[in-house]
Write a structure and sequence with these properties.
Elements: H1 13-18, H2 21-27, H3 34-37, H4 40-82, H5 89-109, H6 114-129, H7 131-146
C-alpha cells in the first residue's frame, strides 16, 4: 500500500514577526519606555482606556465595599442596642489608642525599608519615562470614577 506522506511547511515565528512591523510591536517590543515604542496619540489612547476601565472598576468595588462596611456596622449597632451582643468599649478604646501609638512611632522615624524604597524608586522612574501614558491613565481613571 502506498502511504502518502504529507509535507508540512515549518513557520519560524521569529522570522515571521521581524517581517511584520505591527506584529513586531506586539510580540517583540524594544526594551525601554513605551514612549519609544508608540506615538503620543497611541499612548494617550492606551492610558485613557486602561485608566477608564480601572476607575470604573474601582468605583463599583468602592460602592460595594462601602455598602458592606456600612451595613455590617449598622447590624452590629442594632445587635448591640437590642442586647444580642455587648461591646467592651474600654477594650475598643485601649486598642484604638495602641494603634495610634504604633502609627505615631512608625511615622516619626520616617524611614522606609530598602525593599520599599527600591520599589518606590522603580515606580517613579517608570512614571517619569512614561509621562504621556501616565497622564492618559490618570485622565481615564478620573472619567471612569465619574461614570
Amino acid at each position: 500500500a502506498g502511504a502518502k506522506e504529507d509535507s508540512f511547511n515549518v513557520l519560524d515565528l521569529a522570522e515571521y514577526t521581524k517581517n511584520r512591523p505591527w506584529w513586531r510591536k506586539i510580540f517583540a517590543p524594544s526594551s525601554g519606555s513605551s514612549a519609544e515604542k508608540y506615538n503620543v496619540a497611541t499612548q494617550l489612547v492606551i492610558g485613557g482606556i486602561t485608566g477608564w476601565c480601572t476607575g470604573f472598576i474601582f468605583q463599583k468595588v468602592g460602592k460595594l465595599a462601602a455598602t458592606a462596611v456600612g451595613g455590617g456596622f449598622f447590624l452590629l449597632q442594632i445587635a448591640n442596642h437590642t442586647g444580642y451582643i455587648k461591646v467592651d468599649w474600654k477594650l475598643v478604646e485601649r486598642d484604638v489608642n495602641k494603634a495610634k501609638q504604633q502609627l505615631k512611632f512608625h511615622s516619626s522615624g520616617n524611614k522606609m525599608s530598602p525593599e520599599v524604597k527600591s520599589r518606590v524608586d522603580e515606580v517613579i522612574i517608570f512614571l517619569k519615562k512614561n509621562v504621556i501614558l501616565t497622564g492618559g491613565f490618570a485622565g481615564g481613571f478620573m472619567l471612569g470614577m465619574a461614570s
